[in-house]
Amino acid sequence: MVTGAYYPELSGAGLQCRTIIRGCGDAVRFSVLTTAVDPALPRDDEVEGVPVRRVLVSVRSRIARWLKAPQLIQACLGMARQVDILHLHGFSAKSLVAVAIAKLLGKKVVVTLTSVGHDDAVSMRAKGLCAFRSFRTADRFVAISPRFGELHDEVGLPPEKYRLIPYAVDLERFRAPRDGERRALRRELGLDPNLPLVLFVGFFSHEKCPDLLFDAWTDTFASTPASGLVLVGATRAGYYEIDSRLADRIRSNAVRLRCADRLVMAEPTAAIEKYYRAVDVFVLPSKREGLPNVVLEAMSSALPCVVSRLRGVTDSMITDGIDGLLVEPSDRHALAGALRTVLTDLDLRTRLGAAGRRTVEARFSLATIAAEHVKLYRELTSSEERPDSR
After folding, report:
1. Which of 121, 163, 186, 263 might form a disulfide with 155, Cβ 3.0–4.6 angstroms?
2. What's the CA gap between 159 and 140, in Å, rounded?
3. Whole-angstrom Cα distance, residue 73 to residue 176?
4. Which of 134, 143, 144, 129 is nearest to 102 (CA)?
5. Model pTM?
6. Contact 360, 171 (CB under 8 A)
7. 49: left (phi over 0), alpha (psi -120 to 50) or beta
8. Distance, CA of 79 to CA of 73 (rounded, Å)
9. pLDDT at 59
10. What backbone phi and psi angles, to 5 degrees, belong to 86?
11. Count of CB atoms within 10 A of residue 306's CB?
12. What angle do CA 258, 325, 347 make, to 5 degrees?
């Protein structure tokens, strides 16, 4: 597995990588090559029995990243010799190195496409001939949502290289709260025991739009009973997506609007399942996604979800009004209206939450998705067909 972050550092692709490794069990032997931004993490590590090699990088400095290229090449060469398949989670500058080494050594390459607008086929073609040539030599492209398939076809990549395998959810970890558990978790997490609580999980970035959610939440004050807002995510970190000004603006506006006592801002946590079981509603107002882990986790936790409608992505997870609510991206008025609806209708919250859990059980369970990965790996290692190098 080649990924941009791996536990204990948190990212959607890295967490999904770890989930798949767990789900495949003894059927596949894994190792992980990852970049890292935390200098305290060891270069050579073992996480849950899996060898992990880290290359420390600065994601804010392009020059610093290129200076790490020799270390990345050395690490990739060392690990690639011992495996049959390099499975890239996302496609970025470091992927060019990994693909070149894999092809040099005769290894198969799988690319999981993680974000529409970033590593889909159309976006990769727009990044230039060198990047696209490397990208299209992959033996298989794993799409996590149907939109990637549309873009794959648009650039004329071979259909036989395409697989739709969505992200997976651990149904035991992400579950509905048991009797009394929600109140106990609120005490543990320092959350208000009485208010309905709305939860957001994600980077404080302009694409995730936590500030839009805050604004829409404040728009509900005049027409709904008092509620609380819980924002969980990195507000200041080395990742380029994060804009600390968003968190500062939310805090200052909360003071100005006299709702700071009902706002909780928490840093990322490895125990995020506790937040899902402690709150009443989940909201993700993103502008761009591949297939958001956090929505699947919330649905699996029987939380009613209000999510931006992203064609071929979130509308492949949620049927509006059945197992969640979809609103147009960047539409503050529509988001506030959906919040009013779920905050004032307990029966609707219960119905949407239960239906969301059923959807995840039927389509996104870890056992099902891990089996699809094992099937793919076996297909690649048993095939005598040479990869299409167009």
Report:
1. 121
2. 10
3. 44
4. 134
5. 0.87
6. yes
7. left
8. 10
9. 57
10. -105, 120
11. 26
12. 80
Token digits of residue 248: 């500062």
Number of residues that this document lists for the chain: 390
Q: Please state, in angstroms and rounded to a whole number, the distance separating the CA atoms of residues 105 and 312.
A: 36
Q: Which two tokens stand for residue 83?
A: 């495996």
Give bridge partners of residue 201 from the DSSP assignment. Answer: 232
User: How confident is residue 295, by pLDDT bands cut at 50, 70 and 90?
Assistant: very high
Q: In what order do the strands lie in the sheet with 197-201?
A: 263-266, 228-232, 197-201, 281-284, 305-308, 325-327
149-191 residue pLDDT tens: 999 999 999 999 999 999 999 999 999 999 999 999 999 999 9
Which pLDDT score is estimated for 343?
Answer: 96
Q: Are the C-beta atoms of 325 and 382 separated by less than 8 Å?
A: no
**Tokens in use for 277?**
């079981």
- Give the C-alpha distances (Å, rounded to integers) separating 165 from 144, 162, 313, 350: 5, 10, 13, 29
Which candidate, 344, 352, 300, 361, places its Cα nearest to that of 322? 352
Taking the C-alpha atoms of residue 298 and residue 281, their distance in angstroms, rounded to an integer, is 9
Dihedral angle computed from the Cα positions of residues 145, 319, 303 and 199, in that order, rounded to the nearest 10 degrees: 70
- Cβ atoms of 276 and 301 within 8 Å: the answer is yes
- Helix (H), strand (E), coil (C) string for the chain: CEECCCCCCCCHHHHHHHHHHHHHHHHCCCCEEEEECCCCCCCEEEECCEEEEEEECCCCCHHHHHHCHHHHHHHHHHHHCCCCEEEEECCCHHHHHHHHHHHHCCCEEEEEECCCCCCCHHHHHHCCHHHHHHHHCCCEEEECCHHHHHHHHHCCCCHHHEEECCCCECCCCCCCCCCCHHHHHHHHHCCCCCCCEEEEECCCECCCCHHHHHHHHHHCCCCCCCCEEEEECCCCCCCCCECHHHHHHHHHHHHHCCCHHHEEEECCCCCCHHHHHHCCEEEECCCCCCCCHHHHHHHHCCCCEEEECCCCCHHHCCCECCCEEEECCCCHHHHHHHHHHHHHCHHHHHHHHHHHHHHHHHHCEHHHHHHHHHHHHHHHHHCCCCCCCC
Instruction: Provide φ and ψ at 362, rounded to 5°.
Output: -80, -30
